């Protein structure tokens, strides 16, 4: 039967059981069923998981454009204003010889978000059009993605700290830019996308 | 279990979830951000600067009255590598500031005669200042000024141009005075390569711009005027500032009405000093050409033309270009020096057509009567010459003749030249004298004279020997003695002396004797025979008888 094809034998789903999201009770699932224990609606997979993931991913991608085009932070020193985008900040730190900082910013702000979005995109693509690949590897990609994703917030964190600390009137003053907001949105939406993705969808695909 | 699978199948992808609103919102937000950023992007200006010192792309700001208006987006060298183009991204709403006479300049620390400016840029770096114009909007290409404009374009006032052929210490930012008040300043001073004159641009601030009218004259008020006259030496300076940085003053010549108001950019001539503007200006002038056969060294353009000390006009031009070469030759084929003078009727009569005609007639009649032009020395120290018109006797009669377009006024050698000629003729006569013979004769004469003098000396010494002789010396005493005796003799002859009485008596007797003798002779004359005969008594003569 088709169910046997969709849900591998030996799983709860193949037995018509689903775990409650709230209380983790394993309960039999039927149309419109709710958890007999806590009343939460039961579902075998996150509803619209793929759509949500793709939607969040698209949002993050859209925000990624202004995040890189607009200045993330504006430094005003003695009336001399200086705006930096993420890329110009990396370039400037590199030129100043602060290679570790440049590398950290480059990795945290440019590499990681891009890789994360690409990884999620890859997972979604696999769910839509499965091809022979180790599911274990895909799961590992997902784990790494979810773990590393929050580190992108380091940039936002730095900007927030700087803005809060460096307010010395005419001498030096730092204000956040539009880029910072957009970048925060990128990070948040990639996290949401990662959360929305139901890893179990990978299992459902026949390799 | 079997009924759950279609649900999963259905929900799997194809039902559009409401979650897609989020990317749509994000897209909307992104589009709005981009549109907003595009809309908030003001005009882009290309500014050409001669040097991009202190200008950095993405850092240097554009300001107006210390308010940020934009930022330098790009700095690049122009294709000819001669100057730099700075691309400015200005904020929205600055379009109104960008007119074809809007000025840009780079604000840097600057030290000048008017103080120190731009000190704040020492720390913050240079910025570009914008001064809005009042011309046509829409300009996007500008040339940056090398220094801040002396006067912002929108300052009320009037801008005039001065042309000067004087050496001068007037610079940009030199003050402009009216009656000792500072009313404006020199904006720029440029030496024109076309005419070699200095061109000044002056700005007179409102409300003093009304003082500048069509008849206004500008003069150089720089430095110190030293005048030495019969009444002594006087010093004059407009202000201490003009001593240092030069300056220009303006006003009206004496007795001239102000005239009409003026527009921006009117051109004026810069006079040498305040006295020069009071030199009357005449509209009508009768040109005459003078041809001189002697040196005119010391005769300047502008030198006066005078009749017995009264000014009639001035020298206008001294140039061989005035005449074709053939017309400017004298009888001997030597080239004469042409001098063009203007006789200004306004100095004598009215400054109009009638006056012009009148003075032309007078000169035409006067020339046959001996009116001649000559060079006269006006100042022995400087050797300055002027033209003297006067009547001369013993000149061959001449008429005003035409040479090309000019009336030629006959000339004679100047007094100075005459003196020169006389001196040279005296010298030539001196030269002609047989001086050598004269000198040798004089020598001989001198020798003779020496011999004569020697003889004379001998004579004199003999004479003195004679005088020293005692007999010679006693001579005066003898003489005195003789005179004493003579005196005594003479006193013996005085009226009181006995001799005198005797003499008087003798003389009386002699007189009686003589009377008798005369009677005798009378009677003898009448009757000579008496001597021989006795006397006959004659009849008494009867008057009217016979």
Topology:
The complex is a heterodimer of chains A (about 210) and B (about 550).
Chain A: H1 2-6, E1 17-19, E2 26-28, H2 49-69, E3 73-77, E4 80-84, H3 86-96, H4 99-128, H5 135-149, H6 153-165, E5 172-176, H7 178-196, H8 200-204
Antiparallel strand pairs in A: 1-2, 3-4, 3-5
Chain B: H1 4-11, H2 21-39, E1 41-49, E2 61-64, E3 67-77, E4 84-91, E5 103-107, E6 110-112, E7 115-117, H3 121-124, E8 127-131, E9 141-143, E10 157-164, E11 175-178, E12 181-191, E13 198-205, E14 217-220, E15 225-229, E16 232-236, H4 240-245, E17 248-251, E18 266-271, H5 274-278, E19 286-292, E20 304-307, E21 310-318, E22 337-343, H6 353-366, E23 371-379, E24 384-391, E25 401-403, E26 406-409, H7 415-432, H8 435-468, H9 470-492, H10 498-526
Parallel strand pairs in B: 1-9, 2-8, 10-18, 11-17, 14-18, 19-26, 20-24
Antiparallel strand pairs in B: 1-4, 2-3, 3-4, 5-8, 6-7, 10-13, 11-12, 12-13, 14-17, 15-16, 19-22, 20-21, 21-22, 23-24, 25-26
Sum this structure up briefly.
The complex is a heterodimer of chains A (207) and B (546). Chain A is mainly alpha-helical and 207 residues long. Chain A contains 8 helices and 5 strands; from the N terminus they run αββαββααααβαα.
Protein model, in words:
The complex is a heterodimer of chains A (207) and B (546). Chain A has 207 residues and is mainly α. Chain A is built from eight helices and five strands. In chain A, the strands form two sheets. A three-stranded antiparallel β-sheet of chain A has the order 4-3-5. In chain A, strands 1-2 form a two-stranded antiparallel ribbon. The relative contact order of chain A is 0.16. Mean pLDDT of chain A is 81; it is low at 1-5. With 546 residues, chain B is an alpha+beta fold. In chain B, the strands form five sheets. An eight-stranded mixed β-sheet of chain B has the order 23-24-20-21-22-19-26-25, covered by helices on one side. Chain B has a seven-stranded mixed β-sheet with strand order 5-8-2-3-4-1-9. In chain B, a hairpin with a 2-residue loop joins strand 25 and strand 26 (406-409). The longest helix of chain B has 34 residues, at 435-468. Chain A binds chain B through residues 1-3, 6-7, 14-16, 29-31, 44-45, 47-48, 50-52, 55-56, 58-59, 62-63, 65-66, 70, 78-83, 128, 178, 182, 185, 189, 196, and chain B through 1-5, 7-8, 11-13, 15-17, 19-20, 22-23, 25-27, 29-30, 33-34, 37, 58-59, 61, 68, 71, 120, 123-125.
């Amino acid at each position: 039967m088709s169910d046997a094809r969709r849900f591998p034998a030996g799983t709860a789903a193949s037995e018509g059981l689903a775990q409650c999201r709230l209380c983790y009770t394993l309960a039999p699932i039927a149309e419109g069923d709710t958890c007999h224990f806590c009343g939460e609606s039961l579902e075998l997979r996150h509803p619209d998981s793929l759509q949500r993931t793709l939607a969040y991913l698209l949002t993050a991608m859209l925000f990624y454009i202004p995040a890189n085009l607009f200045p993330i932070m504006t430094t005003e020193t003695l009336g001399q204003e200086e705006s930096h985008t993420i890329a110009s900040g990396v370039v400037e730190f590199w030129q100043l010889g602060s290679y570790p900082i440049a590398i950290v910013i480059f990795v945290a702000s440019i590499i990681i978000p891009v890789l994360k979005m690409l990884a999620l995109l890859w997972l979604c693509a696999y769910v839509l059009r499965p091809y022979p690949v180790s599911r274990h590897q895909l799961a590992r990609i997902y784990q790494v993605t979810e773990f590393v994703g929050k580190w992108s917030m380091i940039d936002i964190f730095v900007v927030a700290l700087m803005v809060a600390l460096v307010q010395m009137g005419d001498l030096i003053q730092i204000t956040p830019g539009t880029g910072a907001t957009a970048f925060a949105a990128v990070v948040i939406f990639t996290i949401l996308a990662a959360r929305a993705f139901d890893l179990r969808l990978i299992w459902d695909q026949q390799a | 279990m079997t009924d759950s699978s279609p649900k999963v199948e259905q929900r799997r992808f194809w039902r559009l979830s409401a979650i897609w609103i989020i990317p749509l919102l994000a897209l909307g937000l992104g589009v709005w951000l981009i549109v907003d950023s595009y809309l908030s992007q003001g005009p882009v200006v290309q500014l050409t600067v001669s040097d991009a010192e202190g200008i950095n792309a993405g850092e240097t700001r554009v300001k107006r009255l210390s308010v940020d208006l934009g930022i330098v987006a790009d700095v690049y060298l122009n294709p000819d590598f001669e100057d730099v183009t700075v691309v400015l991204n200005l904020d929205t709403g600055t379009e109104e500031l960008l007119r074809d006479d809007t000025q840009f300049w780079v604000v840097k620390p600057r030290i000048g005669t008017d103080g120190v400016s731009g000190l704040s840029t020492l720390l913050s770096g240079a910025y570009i200042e914008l001064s809005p114009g009042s011309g046509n909007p829409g300009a996007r290409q500008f040339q940056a000024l090398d220094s801040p404009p002396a006067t912002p374009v929108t300052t009320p006032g009037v801008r005039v141009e001065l042309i000067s052929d004087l050496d001068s210490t007037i610079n940009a930012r030199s003050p402009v005075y009216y009656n000792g008040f500072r009313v404006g300043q020199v904006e720029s001073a440029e030496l024109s390569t076309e005419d070699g004159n200095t061109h000044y641009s002056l700005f007179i601030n409102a409300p003093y711009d009304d003082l500048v009218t069509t008849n206004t004259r500008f003069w150089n008020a720089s430095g110190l005027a030293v005048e030495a006259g019969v009444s002594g030496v006087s010093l004059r300076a407009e202000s201490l500032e003009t001593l240092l940085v030069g300056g220009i003053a303006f006003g009206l010549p004496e007795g001239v009405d102000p005239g009409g108001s003026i527009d921006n950019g009117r051109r004026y001539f810069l006079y040498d000093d305040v006295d020069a503007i009071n030199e009357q200006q005449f509209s009508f002038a009768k040109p005459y050409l003078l041809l001189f056969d002697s040196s005119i060294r010391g005769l300047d353009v502008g030198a006066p033309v005078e009749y017995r000390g009264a000014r009639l006009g001035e020298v206008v031009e001294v140039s061989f270009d005035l005449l074709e070469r053939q017309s400017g030759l004298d009888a001997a084929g030597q080239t004469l020096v042409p001098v063009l003078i203007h006789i200004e009727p306004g100095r004598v009569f009215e400054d109009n057509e009638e006056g012009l005609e009148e003075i032309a007639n007078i000169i035409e009649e006067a020339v046959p009567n001996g009116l001649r032009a000559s060079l006269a020395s006006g100042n022995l120290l400087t050797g300055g010459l002027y033209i003297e018109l006067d009547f001369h006797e013993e000149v061959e009669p001449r008429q005003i003749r035409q040479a090309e377009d000019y009336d030629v006024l006959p000339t004679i050698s100047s007094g100075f030249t005459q003196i020169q000629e006389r001196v040279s003729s005296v010298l030539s006569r001196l030269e002609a004298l047989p001086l050598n013979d004269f000198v040798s004769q004089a020598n001989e004469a001198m020798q003779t004279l020496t011999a004569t003098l020697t003889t004379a000396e001998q004579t004199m010494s003999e004479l003195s020997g004679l005088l020293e002789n005692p007999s010679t010396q006693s001579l005066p005493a003898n003489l005195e003695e003789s005179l004493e005796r003579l005196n005594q003799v003479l006193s013996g002859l005085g009226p009181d002396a006995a001799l005198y009485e005797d003499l008087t008596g003798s003389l009386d007797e002699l007189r009686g004797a003589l009377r008798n003798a005369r009677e005798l002779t009378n009677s003898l004359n009448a009757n000579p025979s008496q001597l021989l005969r006795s006397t006959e008594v004659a009849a008494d003569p009867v008057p009217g008888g016979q």
